[in-house]
């Protein structure tokens, strides 16, 4: 411990699996727009899961299951990250963006690059604007609040993509 560093400070604590999960394997430490970096991780997860040789329904089920598991882990990890970083909703925590981006593509597990781009832009927009009830969900304490506002933004994106798909057909 360096002189003048208070006992229990961030520099004294070790980052464990919760911080690794909360920062999406370090994407949250990206120096510019870490939330966008987290969204890229979420879109990459959708693309990776879409490469599995499954039916459309099977792909939706796998994406939904992965989203639920990552969300549950994210709730725990984000709560631990608040303690680790010593502040509410630290900027390095981006697992919420990963999950929100995955929610946006629940009906499009085999999205083309155009749909991926559209869903990415929609999600980032809804995540920034935080339409009702996202802003209210953000106020829930701990990991739940960190995660739920992005789940809401992802749900708005999912609905917008579904409407766009109907209009385009």
Fold and architecture overview:
This protein has 169 residues and is mainly α. It has helices at residues 17-22, 34-50, 56-85, 95-104, 113-129, 134-138, 142-168. Mean pLDDT is 91; it is low at 1-12. The protein is built from seven helices and no strands. Helix 2 packs across helix 4 and helix 2 (34-50) packs antiparallel against helix 5. The radius of gyration is 17 Å and the shape is globular. The protein has one domain (32-168).
Number of helices: 7
Q: State the secondary-structure class.
A: mainly alpha
Mean pLDDT over the residues: 91
Q: How is the biggest beta sheet arranged?
A: none
Strand content: under 5%
Q: Quote the distance from N terminus to C terminus.
A: 62 Å
> If you compute it from the alpha carbons, what radius of gyration comes out, rounded to the nearest whole angstrom?
17 Å
From N to C, what is the helix and strand string? HHHHHHH
Task: List how many beta strands DSSP finds.
Answer: 0
Helix content: 55-70%
Uncertain parts: 1-12
Write down the domain tally: 1
The dominant shape is globular
């Amino acid at each position: 411990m360096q002189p003048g560093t208070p006992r229990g400070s961030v520099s004294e604590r070790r980052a464990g699996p919760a911080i690794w999960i909360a920062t999406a394997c370090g994407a949250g430490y990206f120096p510019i727009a870490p939330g966008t970096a987290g969204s890229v991780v979420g879109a990459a997860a959708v693309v990776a899961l879409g490469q599995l040789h499954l039916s459309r329904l099977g792909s939706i089920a796998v994406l939904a299951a992965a989203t639920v598991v990552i969300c549950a882990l994210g709730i725990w990890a984000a709560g631990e990250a608040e303690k680790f970083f010593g502040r509410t909703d630290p900027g390095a925590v981006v697992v919420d963006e990963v999950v929100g981006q995955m929610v946006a593509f629940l009906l499009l597990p085999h999205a083309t690059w155009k749909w991926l781009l559209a869903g990415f832009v929609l999600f980032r927009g809804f995540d920034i604007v935080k339409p009702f009830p996202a802003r209210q969900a953000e106020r829930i304490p701990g990991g739940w609040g960190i995660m739920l506002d992005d789940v809401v933004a992802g749900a708005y994106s999912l609905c917008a993509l579904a409407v766009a798909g109907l209009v385009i057909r």
